[in-house]
Amino acid sequence: MAMISERYGIERRDALKVIGSAAAVGIGGVAGCLGGESGGGPTTASSSDGWPDLSGQSVHFITVAAEDSIQDLWQGVASDFENDTGASMEIEFVETGDLTRIIQLLQAGDPPEVSMQSIGEAYQLQNRDVLLPVDDEYERAVNKLGKPTESVKQIVTVDDSRYMVPLFHNLNSYTYRSDLSDIVPDTWEKVRQYAREVDDQDNDVRGTYVPIATGSPAAVRMVSWLWTNGGSISEWEDDTIHINFHEGENRDRMVEMLNFLKERQQWSPLGEGADWADLMNVLQSGTAASTWYAGARAKNEAIRKGRPFAKDIDITPGMPHNRQQVSDGSAEGLIAYQGADTQAAKTFINYVVRKSFVVEMLTKLSPIHNVPSYPEIQQGEEYRNNIQSLDIWEGWTEEQFDNYQVQTLEQLQNKTQETSPPNPYTSTYYSEPIWNLQNEVLLQDKDPEAIIDTHAEALQQIVDEAQN
Amino acid sequence: MPAKHEEVRRRVHPYQESLYDVLSKRWIFVGLTVLPAIGLFAFINMLPMLWALTASFFEIGALSPEWHWVGLENFRIVLDDGKFWASLFRSTVFAGGSVALQVTAGTALALLLNRDFKFKRVVRAIALLPYIVPTAVLSFIALWMGNSRYGIVSQILHQLGLIEQFIPWYGSPELAMFAVITTSSWKFTIFVTIIVLARLQSIPSSLYEAATVSGASAYRRFVDITLPNLRGVLFIVVLLRGVWMFNKFDIVYILTKGGPLNKTTIASIYAYRMAFDQLNLGRAAAVSTLLFLLLLGAAAVYFYYFEPSEEVRVE
Fold first, then answer.
1. Which of B41, B43, B47, B51 to mutate against chain A (most A CBs within 10 Å)?
2. Domains detected in chain A
3. pLDDT tens-digit profile of A410-434?
4. Which residues 39-98 of chain B have a CB within 8 Å of chain A?
5. Contact status, residue A191 vs residue A273, Cβ threshold 8 Å
6. Which residue in the set B65, B148, B274 is minimally distant from A107, CB to CB?
7. Model ipTM?
8. What structural domains does chain B harbor?
């Protein structure tokens, strides 16, 4: 019974999934378990250890998990869940955190019970009435994991209903080598000074890194730097999202930000064709001394590669600011789907969301980079002991760890939260016009003033179509 | 033992006879051999194609299973979109460039492998390697080799004094298309080589001997004997590789994601973005349907004018 079901059976659900997937490729119960580590008592027929009897029911769970250790962890909890509830568990590990697989299943009319998604994706899904409210599950999570920070409290709440149980998050920040300069690049001006000073030194290390990317790094980078300059990308106009980065004061902020990126290219190695892996590796490879990154992976990578300067890599608390101190970040958590087995879905969320599992997960899933969304866990002995037992801890100091993690807890604001209520048209919609606006400036030396309107209109068209 | 064997044979014989009779019926034999393939083809190819064709007449938000009939509206919008035509042009450039490079290099390699020389097997194995490596793996290897900061291609060129600074092969607007064409050709050239080599080895050596005796130079032997014999397979190779490269998605998407500045956004990537970035499945299906019709038309014209079925007949 504890076997985790494979995806090869010829059941109706499976057939639907196969057909749905193939087609997309062709185009190209609440468990009632309040409090306590084990979840508490059931409201329906239950197994001996307190969980409801879900025999004959199944949970299809989807999550990103590239590494064996995290896959093993999920397989283990799934196996325990099967034993404790009698449910059949089907875990699907996907390579990337986009919505491709979810779309295939939704089109097949067979949504998964639960998946792990980012805030942006969750808002996007909620906006299409795909998600199931998880207010009770969130309350139970708070009872078990502790009170979340103010920013976490707001995550994926629409019309007073909550659609995500957040587990962890990370924050855009600036990673730099402190052994090459005494300057702490926590403002735009200091970013310039740092880059200039290091670049002038007699070594092969360039001062900074300005990636030129197609895809999500370009969108995340633009939001991060633009916000620190007091600009915005969108606003609500009556009931519709209006792109405003080319209007009024926002236009000046955007142009200034693009020119700032352009200016820093003189101290950067070639950034063409960059992706997240390039950003993660640029410091450890000794190519550049500082870089923007969405989290702490650039430092962890230097530690893993045994670089002698790894311990001297610092992370600014949040993004270097110009006009305002704010950082774009992202949280990930569990969401449940309408049209799936709701009792099984909610029971699984309740089962997974317990302190020991969350701590273990965050010790294996990009540790330190991913910060627990609940201060009680982050400051707790169990989490810290686990982190300090990892090999990568050798490259961290207590001060560096606290600087990054506490700031991440306190400063989290996601691009969806630029507007109130949150903008559900950010995630995949912030695409081509945003990438190309930056790349035309960085690759073709175009004047931002001359091209900003074209790209704003293109983005408005994409958002308009999504809103229709 | 022989008596027992004879007994078994005697008992089985009538069934063998019956089975033979049944299988001898042409329509049963055809059915048994062709139907599984047709069934598989229908399930894997026809079903998604029919789905895409049907979906192209509906408005379908990717996050909702609801379909709303819009008739030809998706086609109208796609055909009015300059980005679609630009992506179609890039697909043509990518397919044309890839096929030209693959056929030229593949034929040259086949001619080389048709000769006897030391390490011939090693050369053949090395040439075959990219073809058997999964596309994703080869693409990531190519990405590292062409990296703008530490890529080995630039390192070698730099050390040879041919370039002053590293070249961002996949990140440069001017070079990206050339780079993806070259990378895809690196993988698929051996397909052409295998087909051409098989044909080369079937050309009677007596033809070359006679030509040599008649005083024909190596160049004349190539032009008058080799090329005419290769014509048939090259027609088929151009058709197959042309269709496959026109529809290519994986290798280009991994290498450039359609960038930089859309310079490698071929039609399949345009359709993918329509489906999974803009979440408009109906319109993405319309793009796919248009591409299908376009290729169908091109193949029909190709067959009409060049009659490759005649050309591949080996006398």
1. B51
2. 12-170+330-388 (3.40.190.10), 171-329+402-467 (3.40.190.10)
3. 888 888 989 988 999 988 888 999 9
4. 43-44, 47-49, 51-52, 55, 60-65
5. no
6. B65
7. 0.83
8. 1-38 (no CATH), 71-311 (1.10.3720.10)
